[in-house]
């Protein structure tokens, strides 16, 4: 667990990294307000640095900054939730195919480690961390596919997916199931692009089908608790 000293990187990148991790791991929920003065106190930096960090997170789609109200963790609407998964369904199957056609032995080992880490997080009941690791698995496939433009789009889409799942997941199975990832790794290992493409289509459909797309109130967590201070 980080100490108070660990939570004081005197730069924009460090603040963005730790706040983003808290969002992706569902320690900061959609709709949660991020107060500038509290962030300044926790990290020991000026308001100028904090505002720069918040603007970076807004650009990445993780925050919504409202005039005279402040910064809030983005809260995707039902329409946005559907659009995010529609976009992923358009991009990721072909990316999975390309990854299977390009992968080497080291790539496969990296994917296997991702799955092991997901299992370990789920065993510890750290569902938010497991979801983040699941997203990292998908990004790793995009990296292997050597499609840098698509990888950048997916990075934003997967960030939005994390918020969608935080808000609308119905049960633990809304996480990427380990069997689906194992099957994808097998397809990559066998250089079976056709199978990898079809598996990814089914995988994304399964995730979307397990979301409960109804409006609901967001949970409340203090920033200090979210940063595990």
Structure in words:
With 229 residues, the chain is mostly helical. It has helices spanning 12-24, 36-43, 47-59, 78-102, 105-123, 127-145, 148-168, 178-189, 193-209, 223-226, and strands at residues 33-34, 63-66, 70-73. The protein folds into two domains: 12-75, Winged helix-like DNA-binding domain superfamily/Winged helix DNA-binding domain (Arc Repressor Mutant, subunit A, Orthogonal Bundle); 78-209, Up-down Bundle (Four Helix Bundle (Hemerythrin (Met), subunit A)). The protein has ten helices and three strands. β2 and β3 form a beta hairpin. The N and C termini lie close together (8 Å). Residues 1-9 have low confidence and may be disordered.
**Spatial order of the strands in the main sheet?**
1-3-2
Uncertain stretches: 1-9
CATH superfamily of the largest domain: GntR ligand-binding domain-like
Q: How many domains comprise the coordinates? A: 2
What are its keywords?
Arc Repressor Mutant, subunit A, 10 helices, single chain, disordered N terminus, 229 residues, mainly alpha, 2 domains, Four Helix Bundle (Hemerythrin (Met), subunit A), 3-stranded antiparallel beta sheet
Short description:
The protein is mostly helical. The chain has helices spanning 12-24, 36-43, 47-59, 78-102, 105-123, 127-145, 148-168, 178-189, 193-209, 223-226, and strands spanning 33-34, 63-66, 70-73. The protein has two domains: 12-75, Winged helix-like DNA-binding domain superfamily/Winged helix DNA-binding domain (Arc Repressor Mutant, subunit A), CATH 1.10.10.10; 78-209, Four Helix Bundle (Hemerythrin (Met), subunit A).
